[in-house]
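So, can you check these tokens?
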Amino acid sequence: MSTDNKLIRGLSLTDSILLLAGGIIGSGIFLTAKDIAFNTRSPLLFLSIWAVGIVITMLACFAFAEMGAMFPHAGGQYVFVREAYGEFAAFLYGWMIFTVSVAGTVAALGAGFAEYLGKIFPALAADRAVFSLPVYVWTVGHRVHELGGFTVTRGHLVAMSAIVVQTLINIFGVRPGAKLQNIATWAKFAAIGAFVILGLAVGKGSWGHYSVPLAPSADAPSLVTGIGVALIAVFWALDGWVYITWSAGEVKDPQRNLPRALILGLSIVGVTYLAINAVYLYALPMSGIASEAAVAQAAAASMFSAGAGRWLALLISVSCLGAMAPCIMSGARVYYAMAEDRIFFRSLAKVSPRWRTPVASLIVQGIWSVALVLSGRYDQLFTYVMFMMVLSYMVTVGAVFVLRRKMPDAPRPYRCTGYPWSPLLYIVLAGIWAVNAVKEKPTETTYGILIVLLGVPFYLYWWTQKRKTRNTAT
């Protein structure tokens, strides 16, 4: 049961759109082009795969918009899953969000921010050690052997500082948090706009790149496999659109503004992503894109000068910092909703009477994110869970059908566009993608499933405690 009256509805439609856009545009758009180019091979397909990914994601947004308007509470997707499938399924979703998805994303964005900031300011170079701690092991006979060492770098400190500062800003109220993410998102749009406009207007590129495919290669994937693998990168770069549903308990007039934010926000991001990739292809041929991990910097150097790469590093650094803000703000609302349902740490349901924010939830999230930064395992963990995230979207889109049967008379201020065909099409396409992902990435998908299943004993513990509390009360 939600008690959203503890939170304040302080996010306007503009705030909501910027939260969604800012959450999506992080480092992914600057890092995925290499893999997409290699797997698509053709310039036309290289651009088209982004349009396909955006359309598929929009199909999910239509379904989420209906449920978001029905249940405009903190937790968003967690609430949709709970209402459709029950508490256990909702807990497993929330467990995945807490253990890996949000904290792993925050850690990865913090590391990305530190890495690219170090390229601009050499004194902050991410790989420069600050101090090292030896790690010892005691063996039989009480002999001590040095097992290795743990090194804290300047990159660690910069990333952790960014997480701490943004967590504190979000603790001090929803408006300061919203202002921070708005400023960061507008700065990203301004920088991306300059990159696109100047690149196409005065950059040294060639439209001939649009007609030259990647040369045949023995290790090139088949067309179907290549599209499936490329979509993994596209979905990763587009992930983050769900954040606004997590913060639905603080959106003004959510029955109107939540659907608008989902559809308008994703549309804006879609146009932005297509424009950026069009500039990549104008600046570099497919062979150049497929060989460059840092394609944005390579494109800037090709169109302008080597020094332009420093400005692109600043853009990516700001983008990572900006994407961290809505992730921190929204993620804490999922754990808050779980705690309200008494299937998570009860302290995370506490809201500050002064700032009206879930302080404990934000702090625990920040601590776990910092721990993942120090561990260096966030990228691997997030790779494992990306498969599960898309599965969760597929299952949640299916909840539209379940809820129409379970709650036929419930108010639906917004009804899913194209129902029943649009959600059904998403489920089919996402299902095909999932099968291909299992085939091409069996290790990652298996670990993703195991991470989620690790939450089962924890659910049983909290469910038992909740049952004991109910029995005592009666």
